[in-house]
C-alpha cells in the first residue's frame, strides 16, 4: 500500500533528476489547461450578459434615437463571444486532450528515464488520434454531467477516471470502455487517498499564488505531475499482480 510521503518523495526525485524538461512539459500542460478553462468560462459568462450591458450603457450615453441599435450590437457581440467560446472548446477537445495525454506519457517515462519535451506531442503521432480525443472528451463529459447533479458525485468521478489519460498514454489504441473500466478498478478503494494526496499540495499551490506562479512553474507543477505519475505506476503494478491487465 502506498503512502503520500512515498509517492511525493519518488516524484520529487524523478522530476529533479530531469529538471528542465519536466518544468517545460508541466508548464505547457498548465498553460493549455488554464487557457482553455478560462476561455470557455469567460465566453459563456460574457455571452449571457453582453446584450444587457450594451443596451444599458447605450441608454445612458446616447440619445434615445441611437439606443435602439444597442440590442442589435449586443446580440452581435454575444454571437461573436459564443463563437469564440465554441472555438476554445473545440481546441480543447482536438488539441488540449492530446497534449494532456502526451504530458502524462512524459511523466510516466520520466520515472525511469529522461524523455525530452517533444514527448508531449506523442499523441499526435500515435496513429490513434481519434480514439484519444473521443475517450478524453467522454471522460470530461461524464464528469461534467455528474457534477451537474451534485458536486460530490462529480468529485468522485474525477478520481474514478483519474487514470484514464495515463492508460491511454501507454495504450493509445485501447477502446474507451476498457480504459474507463481499468481506471475504475485501479482507483477502487483509493479515491479518498488520492483526494488527500491532491490536498497535500494546497500549501505549495498557495505559495505559488503569492509568488505570481513562479514557484508553481519551477517547482510545484512538475512535482505534482511526477507524483501523480508515481500513483499510476503503483496502480499499474498492482493491476499486474491482480491479473486484470497483461
UniProtKB/TrEMBL annotation:
Q: Give one Pfam family.
A: DUF975
Instruction: State whether keyword Transmembrane applies.
Output: yes
The transmembrane segments are 20-38, 73-95, 132-156, 201-220
Keyword annotations: Membrane, Transmembrane, Transmembrane helix
Recorded hits in PANTHER family, A to Z, give: MEMBRANE PROTEIN, MEMBRANE PROTEIN-RELATED
Any idea what this protein is called? Answer: DUF975 family protein
Report the source organism.
Clostridium scindens (strain JCM 10418 / VPI 12708)
Amino acid at each position: 500500500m502506498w503512502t503520500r510521503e512515498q509517492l511525493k518523495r519518488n516524484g520529487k526525485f524523478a522530476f529533479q533528476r530531469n529538471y528542465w524538461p519536466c518544468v517545460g512539459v508541466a508548464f505547457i500542460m498548465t498553460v493549455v489547461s488554464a487557457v482553455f478553462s478560462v476561455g470557455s468560462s469567460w465566453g459563456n459568462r460574457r455571452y449571457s450578459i453582453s446584450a444587457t450591458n450594451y443596451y444599458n450603457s447605450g441608454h445612458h450615453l446616447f440619445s434615445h434615437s441611437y439606443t435602439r441599435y444597442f440590442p442589435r450590437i449586443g446580440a452581435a457581440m454575444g454571437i461573436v463571444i459564443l463563437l469564440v467560446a465554441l472555438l476554445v472548446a473545440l481546441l480543447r477537445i482536438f488539441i488540449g486532450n492530446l497534449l494532456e495525454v502526451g504530458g502524462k506519457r512524459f511523466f510516466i517515462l520520466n520515472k525511469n528515464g529522461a524523455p525530452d519535451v517533444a514527448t508531449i506531442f506523442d499523441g499526435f503521432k500515435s496513429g490513434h488520434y481519434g480514439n484519444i480525443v473521443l475517450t478524453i472528451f467522454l471522460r470530461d463529459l461524464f464528469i461534467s454531467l455528474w457534477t451537474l447533479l451534485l458536486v460530490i458525485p462529480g468529485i468522485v468521478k474525477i478520481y474514478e477516471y483519474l487514470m484514464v489519460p495515463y492508460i491511454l498514454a501507454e495504450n493509445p489504441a485501447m477502446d474507451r470502455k476498457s480504459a474507463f473500466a481499468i481506471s475504475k478498478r485501479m482507483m477502487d478503494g483509493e479515491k479518498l487517498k488520492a483526494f488527500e494526496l491532491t490536498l497535500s499540495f494546497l500549501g505549495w499551490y498557495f505559495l505559488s499564488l503569492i509568488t505570481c506562479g513562479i514557484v508553481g512553474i519551477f517547482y510545484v507543477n512538475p512535482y505534482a505531475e511526477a507524483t501523480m505519475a508515481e500513483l499510476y505506476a503503483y496502480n499499474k503494478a498492482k493491476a499486474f499482480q491482480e491479473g486484470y491487465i497483461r
